[in-house]
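Sync notes, pocket subgroup
Present: LS, DG
LS reminded everyone that the earlier model was apo-only. Rerun requested with adenosine-5'-triphosphate included. Inputs:
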Amino acid sequence: MKREFAVIGLGRFGGSICKELSMEGMQVLAIDIDEDRVNEYKNIASHAVIADTTDEVSLKEIGIKNFDHVIVAIGDNIQASILTAVILTDLEIKKITVKAQNDYHEKILTKIGVDQVVHPERDMGRRIAHNIISNNILDYLELSDEHSIVEVKASKRMIGKSLVDLDIRANYGCNVVAIKHGKDINVSPSAEDALKENDVLIVIGADIDISRFEKHLVIDDN
Ligand code: ATP
């Protein structure tokens, strides 16, 4: 059976989730308090309705309880976002994802007990900052407050050397969990094979260790 999604708040973030889910063939109900925004999504989502989601009665009338996953993408109006999240948790929706606007908002949402809090501006800012530090840092994914995964292109310093030569674990405390080359991905990379140009290493570790690894091995001098 197809999962059914409801997206509340059709700004840039909520709108983009709504479009992607619809393009993937999912059933999506688009909800916003603003009539113009709802009209924009009438032909994109499966259904689009005007509602103030801080009103429990309106949410019940929409039949929000029938949805498998509700995404709350109300950003600027933090009060409306929190109230909506409280009502959804009270209604025991199977899965609730909420976009947080700042760290305090995130803390409150976590305390309320929503399943997933996302912070797209902060995460994207971090990714771009790492890519600005070095073009070799392709992606950066936070796993916890202290651990991350980074995707790095083999730097000039790495090319021609094997994982044994570089000894990333002993020297920097991080682990290379996979190596990508083009479309191929090797999840148990050989310790002896020399790294080639355009190899991409997937590295996991504590942020402090990843930072040392980036400074010493990833950032090219030029
Ligand atoms: P983004 O940063 O994603 O571009 P935005 O700045 O366009 O968002 P926000 O103010 O963050 O807009 O709100 C997102 C949407 O949430 C808006 O379209 C707004 O009308 C809607 N919204 C705000 N309050 C409510 C509410 N109580 N019920 C339903 N929708 C709401």
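DG: The chain has a mean pLDDT of 93.
LS: The first helix runs from residue 12 to 23.
Action: DG to write up.
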